[in-house]
Amino acid sequence: MNLSYTPLIGIDWGNHSRRAYLLDNHGQVMGQHIDDTANLHQASEFEDALAELLDMWSLRHADVLMSGMVGSHEGWMETPYLPANQDLALLRENLAEVRCKRRDLGQIRCRIVPGICYTDADGLPDVMRGEETQIFGCLLQGATDGWLVLPGTHSKWARVKAGKICELESYMTGELYDLLGHQGSLASLTIMRQHDSGRFEAGLARARTAAAALTHEIFTCRALVVTGHMPALHAASYLSGLLIGAELQDMHHRLGNQPVHIIASMYLAQRYAQAMDFFGIPFRLWEPDQVYLTALRSLVGLQQTGDESSRELLSAL
């Protein structure tokens, strides 16, 4: 593909999936690709995966900006964390350059967005990689100071003030749900799933009022099924309510009256919105693709104006 400018590729590259976006020099989205490219362990494997993406779009030169676990110790190249309590605009000044060894990637500039590291009052660290980019984009779109939540494998709660992440809390809600649903004694009960809003709220209610440890409450999910008090088809909904409810119960006293900003895909946004309503927490939903693209454009200094180059790229595709 012969272009008069260098296109931009933004990649949100996590442990389980890769979301790539092709933009022209005015910030217009001209292509999008999602795959399950994950569990890579060597730099050469990441380079090969990037080369395949470029081949798919017939590109030989591009500016590539990546975020997420691609910058972790287990990723392509470990990049330093940016300390919390700094303006997120400093992400622009701390993009880490990645040198590619493949000759066919010689005209590709690759950079990785740094993650964020927070240390609490007890000296315990918490970290994020990838979510900081979406938070930055959400703030650029007008999100107010307060708490944001990004549900996922590890649910991230971040309190933002004046463009800075002041607090960070991570919960293994999604990972625990996945592990319990595929391994151990609950797996056989939750393999056949049908979402039931009532059972989900029953799990939320139990998490809000239970005095017992969460590990005990999780076992009651099994006990309810084997004693005939709950159909196995609804066990996953109840378990989801328990885990999300435990997360919200822990955070509830810190949220105040300001709405929580939820950045999540439709499935998780629906679950967390229902849970917020149940707990009486005001919220606002943000679309993850849009906040990511807003951050991406800002990080490389692109403005979405005009469509002349978009037509050029579209015709080339």
Keywords for this entry:
single chain, five-stranded mixed β-sheet, disordered C terminus, alpha/beta, 317 residues
Give the helix proportion (percent range).
25-40%
Mean pLDDT across residues: 91
The helix/strand class is alpha/beta
How are strands sequenced across the largest beta sheet?
3-2-1-4-7-6
- Tell me the span between the first and last alpha carbons: 8 Å
Describe the protein.
The protein is α/β, with parallel strands linked by helices and 317 residues long. Helix content is 37%, strand content 22%. The chain is built from ten helices and 14 strands. It has helices at residues 43-56, 131-140, 173-182, 187-190, 197-209, 214-226, 235-252, 266-279, 288-300, 308-316; strands at residues 8-13, 18-23, 29-35, 62-67, 82-83, 96-98, 108-112, 116-119, 125-128, 146-150, 155-161, 164-171, 260-263, 283-286. The strands form three sheets. The protein has a six-stranded mixed sheet. Helix 8 (266-279) links the parallel strand 13 (260-263) and strand 14. Helix 2 crosses helix 9 (288-300), helix 5 (197-209) packs across helix 8 and helix 6 packs antiparallel against helix 7. The longest helix is centred in the C-terminal third of the chain and has 18 residues, at 235-252. The relative contact order is 0.15. The model is unreliable at 305-317 (pLDDT under 50).
Topology overview:
Blueprint: E1 8-13, E2 18-23, E3 29-35, H1 43-56, E4 62-67, E5 82-83, E6 96-98, E7 108-112, E8 116-119, E9 125-128, H2 131-140, E10 146-150, E11 155-161, E12 164-171, H3 173-182, H4 187-190, H5 197-209, H6 214-226, H7 235-252, E13 260-263, H8 266-279, E14 283-286, H9 288-300, H10 308-316
Parallel strand pairs: 1-4, 4-7, 5-8, 10-13, 13-14
Antiparallel strand pairs: 1-2, 2-3, 6-7, 8-9, 10-11, 11-12
Helix pairs in contact: 2-9, 3-7, 5-7, 5-8, 6-7, 7-8
